[in-house]
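A quick aside before the break. I want you to see a complete sequence-to-structure record at least once, exactly as it would be stored in a machine-readable document. Don't worry about memorizing anything.
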Amino acid sequence: MFRNYWIIAVRSLQRNRSYTIINFLGLTVGMAACLLLFLLVRYETSFDTFHAKKDRIYRVITVNRGPQNEGRQSGVPYPLAGALKTGYPQLEQVAPSYMEFGEQLVVERGEGQAPKVFRENAFYAGAAFFKIFDFGALDGDPKVLLDVPYNAMLTKSTAEKYFGDWKSAIGKTLQLHNKVLVKVAGILQDPPANTDFPFTVVIAHSTLAAANMTPTNPNDWVTINGGTNCYILLKPGSSAPALERSIDQLARTHQPAEYSKNGAGLQALGDMHYDDAETMDVYSGTKFSRDLIKALVLIGLFLVVIACINFINLATAQAVNRAREVGIRKVLGSGRRQLVFRFLAETGMISGLALAASILMAAPLLGPLNTLLETKLSAAPLAEPVVILFLLGIWVVVTILSGVYPALVLSGFNPISALKSKLAASSTRGLSLRRGLVVLQFVIAQVLITGVLVIVSQMNYFRHADLGFAKDAIITVGVPSDSVSRSRQASLRQDLLRNPGVEGISYSFAAPTDYSEWYSDFRYDQSPAKTSFASSLRWADTSYFGLYHLLLVAGRIYSNTVSSDTTREFVVNETCVRKLGVSLSYGQYQDPAGA
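That is the input. The structure line, written in C-alpha cells, reads:
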C-alpha cells in the first residue's frame, strides 16, 4: 500500500512540476537556514560543557562597589588564589591562571639552525588547572609536569609548527621575554573549538613568581590585571552562595580602607561564555549572549513556519484543479483516510527532497558564516546522532504542518460536485484560514525584513560614524616590551619613516578603542578620597595625537621630555572633565596633526 502511495505521489508531482519546484525551493531555503541556525546555536551552547565536573567549577571574580552602582570584573588580585588555597577546606582545587597576549617566544632549534621567533598567547597555569578541567595530553601528565617551574607544554599543532614533528619537541627550549628559558616537558591535545581556553603554549604558573614575572606585585590586593583569573572546584555538597559570601569578606579584609567596599564573587563556568558585560572577559575573546541565542531560535522557527505556510497556500490554491482527481478516486472506492495518507506522501516526498537539498546547500555556507561570526563551525556534526534526529524531526514537523491541512481539504471534496465540475474556488472550505495564513506570512516576513533593515542601518552607522579619531590606513603592530627592544624603538621608527608608504608612527599601550584596557581611579585637586569612577588609561608618545587626529578642545598635548619616572602631564577627554564637575570653555578645535 505504501509503495503504491509513493508511486502515485511521484506521478502527481511530475504532472504538477511548477507547483513541485516552487514548494521544493521554498522548503529547501527554509530548512537550510534553520539547519545553519541550529548548528550555530548548538555550537555556542556547547562551550566547555565537555568537562566532567562542570557543575562544580566556578571562576572567582572581582566586585567593585561604587557609590552609584556595582561592577564586576573577571580579573582578580594576584595573591587571592594563595589565600583561597590555605583557608578554604571546602575547595577541592584552586587554579590561578594568567594569559599573556602576544608573548614573544624564541624557539631554539638545535645546532646549525637559526632560532625562530613566534608570537603566542602564553597561558600560565598549574597542575590544579588540569585537575579541574578535562584537557587531554599526548605525552606527559600536566597534573604533574606543570607543578614544576620553568616547565612548559605545547599543543600538538603548535609543536608541529615549531619543530615539524611533535614528538621531537620534548626537551626543547623556549625563551620568553628574551631572558627566561622554559623547557618543553610534554605535549597536550589541541583544545576543542568550543572552549574559552584556546591555549597553544601552557607554562607552569609557578614560573611567574620564580622568574619575577608576575603581572602585578605579588602582595598587591588592589591592582588587577585582566588576564589574571582564578578557577575553583567545589567539593561535592558545598554551598556556592555561602562560599561566595565568605570569599567576598576575605577580599574586603585585605583591601585598604578606601577600597574596603570592593570584594569578590563567583561565576559559574556555564555562565562565562554568555556574560555580555564588557569587563567580564574570557580568554577566547569571543562571547555570545543568551538573548542572541533566543533570537536565533525564534528566527529559525519563523523561517520554517513561513516555508510551511507557503506550501499550504499553494496546495490549497491548487485544490480546485485536483478536485476531479479526488472525485474519481472516491467513486472508485478510496476512503478519506487513504486520500489523506496519499496527499501526506506527496508532501513527505517534497519535504524529504528539500531536506536533502538543504544539507547540500548548508554545507558550503559554513565557511562564510564562520568568517562573518568568527566561529569554527564544521560539516562534521551533520553526521552526529543529535543532528540526524534534528533533521528527521524537521522533516516530520514540516511534513505534518505543510501536509495535514491541504490533505484534509482535498480529501473532503464532494465527489459528485467534483465530477460535474461544479466545484469553484469560492466554494472550497478553509479559504478564510488561507487568507489568515497569507496575512501571517506577510507579517512574519515584514518583521524579519524590518529587523534586517535595522541591523544594516546600525552596521552602516558603526562603519561611518565619527568616532572622534582617524582609523583609516592605520595598522597596529605589537612590539616586544623588554628593555633591549625598547632601546631599539627609536631606530625602528627612523627605519620605518624612510619607507615612502609610511606617513607617521606612534608607540603606545593601545589604540583609542582597543580590546586591551587599563583602568585606574585617582585623586583630584588634593582630595583625600579618590574618584568614584575609574578612567581608562592610554600610555602613548606625543605622536599619538597627530596619528589618530585627536582634536584638542583646550590646552595642549604633553611634553615629550621625561625628567623622572613620575607622570607630570596628561590629557583627558571631555567626559572625564564633566565627571569631575569642571566647567570647560570651548575654544576652536585643534588638530595636532597640523601642528
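Two observations worth writing down. Confidence is low (pLDDT under 50) at residues 425-430. The two ends are 89 Å apart (CA to CA). We'll return to this after the break.
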